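Mods, move this if it's the wrong board.
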Amino acid sequence: MALPRMTHSAYRVETIARLAQWRIDDLPSSTYRKSDAFKIGYWNWHLAVEKNRALYVKLYPEFSNVTRENPPIASFIIQVVCSAGDRKSFTHPEITDKQLKKNDDFVWPVEAPLTGTYIIDVEFLDLKTASSKGGEPCSIWTEGFTQNQPNSVVHACLGHMLTQGIHMDIVINASNGSIGAHRAVLSARSPVFHSMFSHNLQEKELSTINIADMSIEACRAFLCFIYGNVKHEEFLPHRLALLRAADKYDISDLKEACHESLLEDIDTQNVFERLQTAVLYQLPKLKSSCLQYLVKFGKIYDILDDFSTFMQFAERELIVDIFNEVLNTGKGSQDSTNGKQQS
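Not the wrong board. Structure tokens:
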């Protein structure tokens, strides 16, 4: 008996942010299948399935110099979702800080009858590498933001002026505190600040800027970015406030840095907030990624109650965008099915 011909798409793993999904159609008994490589973090990964009495699911990094020298220490949630009917799912208990180096370091026997089409869904919560100095493993995502610094010496000097309060001539009043800065630096980085200090406005006369919608912690991160020495731990928790400030004061590189960072960790807890943010600040990549995460990757089924609440208050244009995404995804799936039948 001839085996069914497999198309390239049968091995492809789709990824978005920190989520990976492998769609498997009609896997016969006594069959082994290995996915194409997909990249999350520093590593290329593979999923593999073997179907006997149970379905055995493997997740492992591709063997390489990177894997040999810095094997990932992974935290993730993995589940198998039946794509038909009520989308019954089987979820493995959360894996925390497990080093994955060989192809049998994580094997999950799914003791349930699975037929038809199902999806293997892996959401990476964290990826760490061992410290070269022998300390605690370090997350690759907590050290992920590096500000573009074409002249690090100059930025170091500017940062020193900020942290040491050297010749400051302007005070920024945040919602819960104040911090000093330099008019020349602010003017050079923002046309809005430049306009403030070039005309007889209150900010010029009183040498103060009031930013009542920003905490002192977010304001400090804002200034550190402007001065070129922001750290990841300062940037990450204040991305939304920094995005708002970037839009308000027309600082394009800060807006783009926030945009790129918000793309990296979309999940079920923040996807609706990210979607609204994308619409408000006209961030097309973030909007598209959120819609794909919800519809193409099927995460909308995991948060149906939140989705219903969101839809009650969403703008009409956004509702139309969501339904268009549903239609386009459905059309793409149907075209794929028709193509397989013809082959």
